[in-house]
Amino acid sequence: MTSSTSSPTDSPGPELLVDLRDSSWRMSFPAMGTRVDLIVEGGSARQMTEAVCELVARHERLWSRFSAHSDVTRLNTACGQWVDVDPATCALLARVKDLIDVTSGCFNPLIEPVRQLWDPAGALAALVAGAGAATSTESATTPGSDALAEVLPLCSPGMLDVDPAASRARLKGGARIDLGAIAKGASADQARDLCARLGARAALVSIGTSSIAALGRRSDGTPWRVGIRDPRSSESSWLGYVELPDRMSLSTSGDNLGALVDVAPDHAQRFNHVIDPRSGMPARILARSATVICADGMTAEALSTGMLIGGRQAVVLPHTADGDVAASPSSIIVGGEQGVMAGGIRVDARPAQIWHPRQELSESDGGAGVSGQNSSTSPT
After folding, report:
1. What is the DSSP string of 94-160?
2. How confident is the model at residue 1 (pLDDT cuts 50, 70, 90)?
3. In what order do the strands lie in the sheet with 375-378?
4. Which residues fall in a compositionally biased region of kind Polar residues (predicted)?
5. How far is Cα 299 from Cα 189, in angstroms, rounded to an integer?
6. Beta 202-207 vs 339-344: how paired, if at all?
7. How far is CA 254 from CA 170, 231, 234, 268, in A?
8. Which residues contact 330 (CB under 8 A, 6 or more apart)?
9. Cα separation, 44 vs 23, whole angstroms
């Protein structure tokens, strides 16, 4: 995903909606700068609530760039020195380097120095106020080529060193990292697995409505459904749904804001909040959103971002020693004139049999249970 980690705000405790053993229950609580939703079949709601809240809070303490003592903050402020980090952080950072390669650099958590030059949030605020685009370097202008040339090398995966044996890492030369998206994918997977260990027969975990992990099937025996909406439309407008199989994870990345302002006199390029790490410029996005389903949330996060920015051709999946594709995720692309395209991103690109357009749904299949910006979960 393209979003950031949590903001440093005080949050109320989780809202426990139902607490009945061996029945369906739902729970929501704020964390990671967004909302965490659980829909669970079986087990003790109170036990799982406490355990999942503790798990997510621990991850936030480790991986939030807004926490003064997190592993991420300590890496970002260590001035190139080695930093002892939690083994979970070390494993996450090792995956980051692999996933940058898999997506041809389109997914890159090391983009933070470039993002600070563009300051998308500041540009949007200035646009709303009628002042035009604003960046952290010069109001109402875009970063100059010299400024981009200076910081773009900091996005190289070579700026991140990871030493798993010593559980330590370092960022060289002023590089900075933001683990927001991949942290949500990892947390959704681990929360789902935790529910399974605590006795859940089935569960759906959603973090920010765009990072979703499934366990088992719904109480009626059908797969979990996740609605996909057009990110440029209203939250109540959705295009259809995908079925999320047991132990699979989903990520949606989207250009929710669209083009904000011109960044070239000939209108050849438009500023949006999605920056291409390869060029340091706003991505030339053809699709409005990309949804990927695969066996783990971290990979899904990277692939959905990579496909949004670089298209399917940007994704280079690893192969086994026999030459087979090691992972075969399915993808849903929501794009302008092309509408919705559903298909695998294997070499043979066989269509995914998981997409159900809105027009196929009956009235009883209607509204989603947990609505969000890019996708929504439905418990019924």
Report:
1. HHHHHHHHHTTTSS-GGGHHHHHHH-HHHHHHHHHTTS--B-SSSBTSPPPHHHHHHHGGGGSGGGE
2. very low
3. 355-357, 238-244, 224-229, 375-378
4. 371-380
5. 11
6. unpaired
7. 31, 6, 14, 21
8. 242, 292, 293, 294, 342, 343, 344, 345, 352, 354
9. 9
Q: Quick: pLDDT tens for 62-86.
A: 999 999 999 999 999 999 999 999 9
Give the pTM: 0.79
- Run of H or E including 73: helix 71-76
Hey, how many other C-beta atoms are within 10 angstroms of the C-beta on 94?
A: 15
Q: Phi/psi of residue 10, each to 5°?
A: -75, 135
* Contact status, residue 28 vs residue 36, Cβ threshold 8 Å: yes
Distance CA 255, CA 336 (A): 12
Region 320-324: what's the mean pLDDT?
43
For the cut 90, the answer to whether the pLDDT of residue 213 exceeds it is yes
| Residues paired with 75 in a beta bridge | none
HSE, CB side, 13 Å, CA atoms: give it for residue 54: 8
More confident of the two residues 348 and 319: 319
d(CA 290, CA 374): 9
Q: How confident is the model at residue 220 (pLDDT cuts 50, 70, 90)?
A: confident
Closest CA relative to residue 33, chosen from 59, 10, 7, 54: 7
Comparison of pLDDT for 36 and 329, the residue scoring more: 36
- Distance in angstroms (rounded) separating the CA atoms of residues 213 and 204: 6
